[in-house]
Each structure stands twice: as C-alpha cells, then as structure tokens.
Design goal:
Elements lengths: L3 E4 L4 H13 L6 E4 L3 H9 L10 E4 L2 E4 H9 L17 H19 L19
Parallel strand pairs: 1-2
Antiparallel strand pairs: 1-3, 3-4
Length: about 130
C-alpha cells in the first residue's frame, strides 16, 4: 500500500477535498481511506501515533505526512494550476500548520459533519481502501 490519502470520513470539508482531488488528479496514483477505517487506523498506528491526529494525511514511501506537509504533497499529484500549490512549501511550516490547525479545529462548525462515513460511488470504489 502506498500513496494513500487518509481523511476524516464524517467531515464535510474532508469529503469535499477528496472529491476535489479525484476530479483534479493527473493520474490515478492516489488511493483513499477514512481515518475511521481499519486501513486508516492501521497506518496511523504503524506510524507511531498513539491517537489519530486531527489532520488529513498522506502515506507515501512508508512515511506518514500530516497537516500542511500532507496537503502540499497531495498538490503535486494534481493538474495545473493546483499543482502549483507546492510553492507554499517556502512558507515557514509553523505558519502553514497554524492556519491548517485553525481550519481543522473549526471544520465541523464551519462545514458540518455527517452521521456516517462516505460511501464511494461505483466508479470510485476501486480507489478506496477499507
């Protein structure tokens, strides 16, 4: 398993982000798993986290990227102009993660929450794990 985007399956913002990634990805190299799934929990646990971080994550090359690092890495899989998001790597990580944390902390209040995890469509099913 590689190139896996881990996301909060009940978060509306997270689900919209997954939809965006699927629509704008250059090629089908990314797979997806909710943090609530067995696959998601297993990857997080293997990566040394005691708790599931409040973050989108990208599992790539045996490493788990979190917060703004994950978002920037995901942008490299997207078509232009979205791939240019990588330029934000020049913004200090402390600033990037501060903005990320503010959004993550308020995502349910600002964007809402579902009662159950996302169910992928028939076309998407092969790209979702667990």
């Amino acid at each position: 398993m590689n190139n896996i985007v881990l996301f909060d399956g009940v978060c509306n913002l997270c689900n919209r982000s997954v939809d965006f990634i699927i629509r704008h990805e250059k090629s089908h190299k990314l797979q997806f798993a909710s943090l609530q799934s067995d696959v998601g929990k297993s990857i997080v646990n293997k990566s040394g986290f005691d708790e599931i971080p409040d973050s989108v994550m990208l599992y790539v090359d045996g490493k788990l990227l979190i917060r703004s690092d994950a978002v920037l890495a995901i942008s490299t899989y997207l078509k232009r102009p979205y791939a240019y998001g990588i330029i934000f790597k020049y913004v200090p990580k402390i600033l990037r993660d501060s903005v990320y944390n503010l959004i993550a902390k308020n995502r349910y209040r600002w964007f809402g929450k579902k009662e159950t995890c996302r169910v992928p469509s028939a076309d998407e099913r092969e790209r979702f794990l667990g």
